[in-house]
Design a protein that fits this description.
Number of strands: 15
Cofactor: [4Fe-4S] cluster
EC number: 1.17.7.3
Strand order of the largest sheet: 8-7-6-5-4-3-10-9
Catalytic activity: (2E)-4-hydroxy-3-methylbut-2-enyl diphosphate + oxidized [flavodoxin] + H2O + 2 H(+) = 2-C-methyl-D-erythritol 2,4-cyclic diphosphate + reduced [flavodoxin]
Organism: Streptomyces beihaiensis
Distance between the termini: 16 Å
Bound molecules: iron/sulfur cluster
Family: Belongs to the IspG family.
Largest sheet: 8 strands, parallel
Number of helices: 12
Length: about 375
């Protein structure tokens, strides 16, 4: 397997209850998991399973599928059985689909109680069915679909309104002895979202699912999510994350994994430390960094590779990495663990780095430990 490198978590994690989403533990000190949501019609079982396979390959740990129609509900059992990762059914309006999802063997069900009419009356039956099946429930409060009563009380979807809605809905389940819950309070504004999660974290011990809803197109959404999740995770808040992008879901997973790796909440696989380039650069750093990144894609060891544009700061940085290059005079000095092992012409830099990386990776796997 993978050599283990100790992670250096950014903060003590908030103490939360633990739930099991299939084989994936959420909360109670379990590693923060990355999830995403399919974009296919759930009733199209083949296409949905195909996308789930792609998400699994990209590192997604939990997948959510929408369930707006009876045809979608009918597809859940096959999808839940054939998916490689736990499947959560996402239910908005109809409690009958909540029961269908539990019966179908989904690993969890997400409900948006602000959207389910007469939800109060149905909670008892949902709690009983979920309890019997051992199916946890996410209470997913969304700014865009907040309970009308709370919207009127607070004037708009404030952090307080989102938290009040979530806690009220949790209390309905608690009345029936059901506590197998996780909670999200999503908003498209990271500031409101951060405040909402902070309040929620202080007010309960349920595991929390982080999300900035409707975060936007890829670039903006990536930044919003990174900033909001970064703020919360660095305070120890958050047990599972979903980055929402108007982009293919595998991209959401990639961003989610990078956020966790950046905070030391997950072991890095490959990390490219490349310089921003400056007037001293003697090589096209952007191109070189891209080529090295592409060449090392899929390498599954915790390798830190430095790509530096010149020999001024280059060697110093390259020395901190497992492997690195500092360019100058049409050549590249290749460093391994701080020692110059070779000097190669510029045209050979990429292939030499890939060779060396492969060699180091093999050695790491043999040793079973990282440097
Ligand atoms: Fe500039 Fe060299 Fe530093 Fe890159 S490594 S930013 S080229 S000084």
């Amino acid at each position: 397997g993978l050599p283990q490198m100790p992670v250096r978590p950014v903060a003590e994690r908030r103490v939360s209850r633990r739930i099991q989403v299939g084989p994936v533990a959420v909360g109670g000190g379990a590693p923060v998991s990355v999830q995403s949501m399919t974009t296919t019609r759930t009733s199209d079982i083949g296409a949905t399973l195909q996308q789930i396979a792609e998400l699994t390959a990209s590192g997604c740990q939990i997948v959510r599928v929408a369930c707006p129609t009876q045809d979608d509900a009918d597809a859940l059992a096959t999808i839940a059985r054939k998916s490689q990762i736990p499947v959560i059914a996402d239910i908005h309006f109809q409690p009958k689909y909540v029961f269908a999802a539990i019966d179908a063997g989904c690993a969890a069900v997400r409900v948006n109680p602000g959207n389910i009419k007469k939800f109060d009356d149905q909670v008892k039956q949902i709690a009983r069915a979920a309890c019997d099946a051992g199916t946890p429930i996410r209470i997913g409060v969304n700014a865009g679909s907040l309970d009308r009563r709370l919207l009127e009380k607070h004037g708009k979807a404030t952090a307080e309104a989102l938290v009040e809605s979530a806690l009220w809905e949790a209390s309905l389940f608690e009345e029936h002895g059901f506590r197998d819950l996780k909670i999200s309070v999503k908003h498209n504004d990271p500031v409101v979202m951060i405040n909402a999660y902070r309040q929620l974290a202080a007010a309960c011990d349920y595991p929390l699912h982080l999300g900035v809803t409707e975060a936007g197109p890829e670039f903006q959404g990536t930044i919003k999510s990174a900033v909001a999740f970064g703020a919360l995770l660095s305070e120890g808040i958050g047990d599972t994350i979903r980055v929402s992008l108007s982009a293919p879901p595998a991209q959401e997973v990639k961003v989610g994994i990078q956020i966790l790796e950046s905070l030391g909440l997950r072991q890095r696989s490959l990390e490219i430390v490349s310089c921003p380039s400056c007037g001293r650069a003697q090589v096209d750093v952007y191109k070189l960094a891209d080529e090295v990144t592409a060449g090392l894609q899929g390498m599954e060891v915790p390798l830190r590779v430095a790509v530096m544009g010149c020999v001024v700061n280059g060697p110093g940085e390259a020395r901190e990495a497992d492997l690195g290059v500092a360019s100058g005079n049409g050549k590249g000095q290749i460093f391994v663990k701080g020692e110059v092992v070779r000097t190669v012409p510029e045209s050979k830099i990429v292939e030499t780095l890939i060779d060396e990386a492969t060699r180091i990776a093999e050695q790491m796997e043999k040793d079973g430990v990282a440097s």
